[in-house]
Design goal:
homodimer, 414 residues, alpha/beta, 42% helix, protein biosynthesis (chains A, B), ATP binding (chains A, B), transferase activity (chains A, B), nucleotide-binding (chains A, B), EC 6.1.1.21 (chains A, B)
Amino acid sequence: MKINPLKGMKDYLPAEQKLRDYVQGCILDTYRASGFERISTPILEDMENLDKSEGGDNLNLIFKVLKRGDKLASALASGDEKALCDMGLRYDLTLPLSRYYAANRDKLPTPFKVIQTDRVFRAERPQKGRMREFVQCDIDILGDASCNAEIELIDVTARALLRIGFSDFTVRINDRRLLRGMLSSMGFADEALDSVCITFDKMDKIGVDGVQKELEEKEMPAGAIQALVEFLNQGEFSLDKVASLCQDAALGENLRKVIQSITTLSGGAYQIAYSPSLVRGQGYYTGIVFEITCAGFSGAVAGGGRYDNMIGKFLGQQVPAVGFSIGFERICGILAEQNFAIPAEKGKLALLYRSEDNFTQVLEKAAQLRQSYTVTVLPQAKKLGKQLGNLEQQGFGTVAFADNDELKPLGERQ
Amino acid sequence: MKINPLKGMKDYLPAEQKLRDYVQGCILDTYRASGFERISTPILEDMENLDKSEGGDNLNLIFKVLKRGDKLASALASGDEKALCDMGLRYDLTLPLSRYYAANRDKLPTPFKVIQTDRVFRAERPQKGRMREFVQCDIDILGDASCNAEIELIDVTARALLRIGFSDFTVRINDRRLLRGMLSSMGFADEALDSVCITFDKMDKIGVDGVQKELEEKEMPAGAIQALVEFLNQGEFSLDKVASLCQDAALGENLRKVIQSITTLSGGAYQIAYSPSLVRGQGYYTGIVFEITCAGFSGAVAGGGRYDNMIGKFLGQQVPAVGFSIGFERICGILAEQNFAIPAEKGKLALLYRSEDNFTQVLEKAAQLRQSYTVTVLPQAKKLGKQLGNLEQQGFGTVAFADNDELKPLGERQ
């Protein structure tokens, strides 16, 4: 028998799981206090639904489940590889949510403020910080077309991070339509905008020269490239400037309102930045997009945006939607790197008994001690000194014995 | 796009998920207070490990995951159906735990008191109360060969059920070795004992006559059948009687100690019964087995037993183990049928705002109200009366408005 978990998947030790449960608890408590309600959907989704979703590269990373019984036999006989599987493991929580909302809409309030925290799966080449099975924590507001939905999602997600113990983070925000409007006004063709955005999003890494070079390689119009480069060379560019180039005053006004509201609500506890090149990968975003970055750590710890067209694919009727997803594994990884200590809870006490003790009375004594401690009942080892040392290493602060009333603190022994 | 979840799997509405989270919270709180620690393993396991496990019928119910890339291509070329898949969805939490313990033993305490609560998958023909994806809540004690492990597992599982709000339940307990010893002494052959036990376990349903008939159909020795029937016709049979037939005084003594301890620990809050025909399905149980039944509901709400040989298959060294699994879906189903009300928590308040209100101030007001309520921020509808009615139906007890300080109770309107 093989004893290791599968490639890209992980066994969590008790201390790791405790941190994960703590982080998830902070997130859930914060979201629930704001009236968001948790739902749950199956890990498996219909294969056709997955194939038709706009998941970008993720569609190549789906774990597919083999058909069973007669259906498998006829699929094998057909020789058609695509016919072998009828379901797949979900690669995110947004597609299942859209399906769920379409299926259950008559039982759900409007707007629907929803929490999902659960496992997703991607058959990626395993590498540091990239798992094949991982947890996402999402909140979404469905049915609110106003930018109040964006404001509330950002506010509550930032409060969840503060609650966990994060502080030095920045919310970066943009509206894809502003960026596209500006690029369009510079002379890039509509059908080239996605490609230009992908290059533009790398500006932090490759600089203005790199952007120019890549756009030239992509054979974009020279005049458009020149206009963009001139604009970029003016240095830091403001929302006002981009909005004026974009020639859509309402879009700029809308984003400005979101940024100002969040700035006020933050009370200075975190930063907010207009991030004109921010795009976020998913194809389904339609307007404002945002992410949270953390000083000293590359990449985002949370990301989201508005996706007004996705639920319509299931429902045949558009439903405005905004979502914000916390990168749960990223958060836990950063906390572990920082040797984060979970805030104090009830102390751990080991109640030791010998084989001659009455075990029923041992458990009765444990029940009493549980009013003040988390009590683990353990057989007393022959080498008590060594056992006490081990218990101390395992985080026990106190030891008690079945046959007397002494409570012995650990860690204060000579 | 298809909007319904896959066959045998379920979308959980907010109220259903709330009940599930409440039940899981009660279970986790109870287990953690007793020093059990939660771990987590991947949903996917190696296909060979699954195939070699002693899962009985469950081995025919595994969802298998198709290989990817080059490995899939060569598997397809080979024409070998069994080569198509390299992993599968786990059908229980005991096999993953055994693998986990073997992989991580040097980082785990002895005895290891462990919690798992997570999803498992079985490709069963869907029917009422039987899902293809469902949650199990397991606790296990690894590394304690004494019956104290059984006593503690039963005590803490029963306390978890009491904490949830269950009371009218019975812990049924047996030792497979006692039953087998008794049957052996009556003249059944060792290799026939599994089959005889399966028949005997049905006695509650088919009666003594039914047992006799089925054993005759199975062509068991007439003398052995007659000895068993005579014994059964003596009516209620006691642990003393069975133990004396079994001719192993220590086994009877051991089971008597467990039953007496649990009886004392229960304080009369639930029943304990010696259940001489109890076997439990899994092939891997080696000694004492137990289950919990609930008055008015057929089948068990929890089941478990000792499995001393399973971890050895991974580790090459025997590790004594006992587990108890709460049927989470069963518990939630019974509570839903009883219209169980989750104990009171912070009241739900809806804070209504109009489009002309300053949304930043609305969220600031919500943050203040959150000290006393779970606050959901919602746009005020044009038809306020209808909206208030809907809110009341959704469980909101209070409504507040962005532009004044009134707190309006719902449900007391004229």
